[in-house]
Amino acid sequence: MTLVKENYPVNFLLIGPVDKKDRSRFLGIINNELIKDRIHYIPWIDASELSSYLDITDVCLAPFHKNPQHESGVANKIYEYMLGKKPVIVSDCLPQKRLMEKHNCGLVFSNQGEFHDAIIKLITDSKVRMQMGQNGYEAVINEYNTRLVRENLLSLYKSMTN
């Protein structure tokens, strides 16, 4: 809400289901009079539709709470955002923080102030936004590509049998 009060031209597209226990709180927040016209919520999309939504998106968010699951690896959606050439703003869960820092493909936040500042940085600096998006794309294509992993595994297996 702060960004809206500060007159930043932000709109949020939220995609995905909300847990039943959080649903009424979630709906209350997104239907707040100040922000309801800037939030677009879609409960579910088919994976094949994601690229179309990424095409109309400038920045992707992954504000996960620190917990054992999020400290154990990177959520697939972050790689999907990177493949879509979008910079990602992530919470400071260690695996995603390392990914952003290694590839300079997004910003990391630890608190609401840093989250706010990260959004402002990326919505106001299109060059940084584009470069981070490109960096993420190249990382997925050149390092996290399943074809490359496949080739490496096949080479490993072949070397073990020789």
- Roughly what fraction of the amino acids lie in strands? 5-15%
Output the CATH topology of the largest domain. Answer: Rossmann fold
Secondary-structure element order, as H and E? HEHEHEHHEHEHHH
Mean pLDDT: 93
Question: What features would you highlight for this structure?
Answer:
12% strand, three-stranded parallel β-sheet, mainly alpha, Rossmann fold, 162 residues, 5 strands, two-stranded parallel sheet
Compact summary:
With 162 residues, the protein is mostly helical.
SSE map:
Blueprint: H1 2-5, E1 12-15, H2 20-30, E2 39-42, H3 50-55, E3 60-62, H4 68-71, H5 76-83, E4 88-91, H6 94-103, E5 106-109, H7 112-124, H8 126-142, H9 146-161
Parallel strand pairs: 1-2, 3-4, 4-5
Description:
By secondary structure, the protein is mainly alpha-helical. The protein has two domains: 1-44, no CATH class; 61-161, 3-Layer(aba) Sandwich (Rossmann fold). Helix content is 55%, strand content 12%. It contains nine helices and five strands, in the order H-E-H-E-H-E-H-H-E-H-E-H-H-H. It has helices spanning 2-5, 20-30, 50-55, 68-71, 76-83, 94-103, 112-124, 126-142, 146-161, and strands spanning 12-15, 39-42, 60-62, 88-91, 106-109. The strands form two sheets. The protein has a three-stranded parallel sheet with strand order 3-4-5, with helices on both faces. Strands 1-2 form a two-stranded parallel sheet. The radius of gyration is 18 Å and the shape is globular. The model has no long low-confidence stretch (mean pLDDT 93).
